[in-house]
Amino acid sequence: xxxxxxxxxxxxxxxxxxxxxxxxxxxxxxxxxxxxxxxxxxxxxxxxxxxxxxxxxxxxxxxxxxxxxxxxxxxxxxxxxxxxxxxxxxxxxxxxxxxxxxxxxxxxxxxxxxxxxxxxxxxxxxxxxxxxxxxxxxxxxxxxxxxxxxxxxxxxxxxxxxxxxxxxxxxxxxxxxxxxxxxxxxxxxxxxxxxxxxxxxxxxxxxxxxxxxxxxxxxxxxxxxxxxxxxxxxxxxxxxxxxxxxxxxxxxxxxxxxxxxxxxxxxxxxxxxxxxxxxxxxxxxxxxxxxxxxxxxxxxxxxxxxxxxxxxxxxxxxxxxxxxxxxxxxxxxxxxxxxxxxxxxxxxxxxxxxxxxxxxxxxxxxxxxxxxxxxxxxxxxxxxxxxxxxxxxxxxxxxxxxxxxxxxxxxxxxxxxxxxxxxxxxxxxxxxxxxxxxxxxxxxxxxxxxxxxxxxxxxxxxxxxxxxxxxxxxxxxxxxxxxxxxxxxxxx
Length: 492
Ligand code: HEM
What we know:
Layout: H1 2-25, H2 42-45, H3 53-63, E1 67-72, E2 75-80, H4 83-90, H5 106-109, H6 118-128, H7 134-137, H8 141-159, E3 165-166, H9 168-183, H10 197-213, H11 216-221, H12 226-255, H13 275-281, E4 283-284, E5 287-288, H14 291-322, H15 324-338, H16 348-353, H17 355-367, E6 373-378, E7 382-384, E8 387-389, E9 393-398, H18 399-402, H19 443-460, E10 461-464, E11 472-474, E12 478-480, E13 485-490
Helix pairs in contact: 8-9, 8-19, 9-14, 10-12, 12-14, 14-17, 14-19, 15-17
């Protein structure tokens, strides 16, 4: 009798769940696979490895003409790699709210610029934008050059061993020094301390966050799992490091007797304050910014400003190793720019002349975008590109598969920097920095750092492939599970 009652109850629950999916689907004209009662389509995305994730998205988008509706349990998602749809979302001044996945970053980044939404994001963005003005970025060039020189020395020591090396962790340390010294005005000499706890902690927390994002059961039991212990350990290191940076800069400002933001000197020229000074000295609505707000923004910029660039530089070097003719063209461009002074550091003018290198970087970011997917949450019923989207839908913008779509790029898997010579292309088909109001605030900073670092490497070394194919993993950023192993040979 009890079993019968249980079965009837179960049947009713399944029927109600199936009916609610059926009715929900009527609110949109986006098509997708049939959801199963209770779990929706979680069976196809649930608990998959980060190495499979982009393939699963690609298969779903392919089947439903680039845009698919799926349900992860009761949560409605639209996955899209359609440039028109993506343009409608990213260019909208209204659709700026972040999707649920960003919630998993909150233990680390709090409500920093990347994760916040609504009025808080608007106020922070307005406040921080001047810190990324070209005139300020200009001052960072000597820092990038100094850290590139240290990197070259390290690479020379590796090159003499004449074996292949995973370049990812080596580049990561240089990128970390660049971001802390330029944006925070403090140095940790991460390149001198190769066992950097910070870099390992970023790796650990990225893994935990991406596991939580795609495994709702793990999220449910999270506090009881070993992932929580891993997260706590990583956060202790990451937050500890940030607090150290903030304290160090506070001490320096005290020593220099600077207690408030002075935007102009008494001679009328503009004072150039760093990003961290802006946070430490400025007042918003007549009040100093709270320590927690400062920590969250510093963490956000440390994360965004170091892991993304590491991924971009490393994959670019991989592409150059695979395409020796293109590497040679980059080298020739460097020779034309530097002439007899081949060892000097690049000036801003030199960087502007590195047009071919810029195409190379853009093409490698097309194939290997550091941020492969981004998410938005739609808060009110909306129509985009003829598609009806009900409120409370999460939209997954699949930049990775859009930039590899043969309907968007001819022979998409071929590495062809010349594609970017054509300036008449639709700008929404190349979105590694996203676009619109929530685009990457650090895009110019990133391009400058990448050019300096790759220019130095190519002037000093020939990069050779090793036959190893990187196995891509879409975690918080695009990385590989088997490193990016390349061989570097000093140029004579
Ligand atoms: C190759 C390097 C980089 C790539 C590919 C990249 C890519 C992106 C993308 C795609 C977004 C949008 C994310 C979203 O909507 O969820 C973004 C946002 C952001 N990026 Fe970058 N980024 C890079 C470097 C940097 C650097 C160097 C900084 C800072 C120094 C930075 C700071 C930020 C911040 C703060 C946001 C959030 C902006 C907002 O929501 O208003 N990024 N980035």
